[in-house]
Amino acid sequence: MTLTPVSSWASFGGTLSVHDHESAVTGTTMRFAVYSPPQAKKGPVPVLWYLSGLTCTWANVMEKSGLQRTASEHGIMIIAPDTSPRGPDVPDDDAYDLGQGAGFYLTATEAPWDKHYRMDQYITRELNALVAANFPADMKRQGIFGHSMGGHGALTLHFKYPDTYRSCSAFSPITSPSRVPWGEKAFTAYIGPPSIAWEQYDATELVQTRQTDAHILIDTGKADQFLETQLKPDIFIDACETSGQALTYRMHEGYGHDYYFIATFMSDHIAHHAKALKA
Ligand SMILES: N[C@@H](CCC(=O)N[C@@H](CS)C(=O)NCC(=O)O)C(=O)O
Predict the structure, then answer these.
(1) Which of 44, 79, 181, 212 could form a Cys-Cys staple with 162, CB 3.0–4.6 A?
(2) Is the pTM of this model over 0.90?
(3) What is the ipTM, given to two decimal places?
(4) Which atom of ligand 1 is nearest to the CA of 64?
(5) CA angle, 156 as apex, 261 and 114 as ends, to 5°?
(6) For 64-123, how does the pLDDT look when each residue is reduced to its tens digit (9 = 90+)?
(7) By residue range, what is the domain housing residue 203?
(8) 224 is a catalytic site residue
């Protein structure tokens, strides 16, 4: 698998680089970014995956969250994949919450989405192998976090692959997509009408049977415009209490759904993963 370099910048003693590659899983050219900390010049470092939200690419978190400073201090590599396959031949929708930019980290089974939309397989298998082969990454020490739709992706991939993604956190995640409009719309389009298949992509369902040894950290703003309609923290908090999943869920007065909020708490999240992965 060949990587095509797109851009590269020095940052906090490390390197932020962007790469393209042909994906056998999505059948498209995929783009992702890597922040490699200075410690990676001496040997493999822990890897932290950041899954972005609706409408985003690799760029939002790398340009707006300021993660490079703390990732550099802790010696953590950060990988930011795209949020969907893209291109003129990839099905799309006029709405921002379906199609390109809205892959929901699942494998679509419904036409026309089923040909390219396989973001969970892309991230857990193909991009994982690419990172292992091309970067000084210690693949035995991986964590995962994300925002909104990407927070949902991080939670579900952690519950499904706890031995791969040993630590987990999220900013303003959708925690029960089966019960909210964003999820209902995307799941119906990608995997068909409500069925047992919905449960395997729903963090609130997964935590009931697949609770892990990790301590999950979640931050959400009390002024988030999606709080009551799309995020519904209480459903997930209750499910974690019932199943015994360790969770710290912090609600922050005045903060919204944006990267000003994420930037405020980014260093806490990287420190949380560094501690769990013993960076
Ligand atoms: N722009 C959309 C909302 C999409 C949105 O808020 N996306 C979040 C993730 S769910 C985001 O991170 N947007 C990009 C950014 O803030 O840089 C709308 O019209 O309501």
Answers:
(1) 212
(2) yes
(3) 0.91
(4) 17
(5) 105
(6) 999 999 999 999 999 999 999 999 999 999 999 999 999 999 999 999 999 999 999 999
(7) 4-277
(8) yes
